[in-house]
Amino acid sequence: QVCRGLRTPRLPVWLCGTAGRHGVLFSTDVRLLRDWRVERHFPLLLCSGRRAQSGTARLAVDTHSHPWEEDPREDPGKRRPSLEMAIRSKWAGATVSWNGTGPFF
Questions:
Q1: What is the pTM of this model?
Q2: Where is the composition biased (Basic and acidic residues) (predicted)?
């Protein structure tokens, strides 16, 4: 049997499986579960347990970004990392900043 705490987590947690890699994406802000207004701009933390990851990656998600705020030199057909595409499946059109960490997932 699964204990109640695992069925109903106190913090938002997502298990990610993209391109054969697994990791945990989570937030330390409990309001992300209860208040849709918090979903405008929020941090997410990523732990993959892989050797390539030396620490917890801190991502910044902006769900209200606009196309004109993107870098004009960036190719619109550029492929995004699979984790960003997974995040966009929950928050369509969101931009994800890796905060100086190279996308390794």
A1: 0.71
A2: 61-81
Q: Are residues 42 and 53 in contact, defined by beta-carbon separation less than 8 angstroms?
A: no
Q: Give the tens place of pLDDT for each residue, 27-61.
A: 988 888 788 888 888 999 888 766 666 678 889 99
For the chain, give percent helix, strand, coil, nearest 5: 25, 25, 50
What's the CA gap between 66 and 43, in Å, rounded? 18
Long-range contacts of 14-18 (CB under 8 A, 24+ apart): 14/90, 16/46, 16/83, 16/86, 16/105, 18/82, 18/83, 18/85, 18/86, 18/105
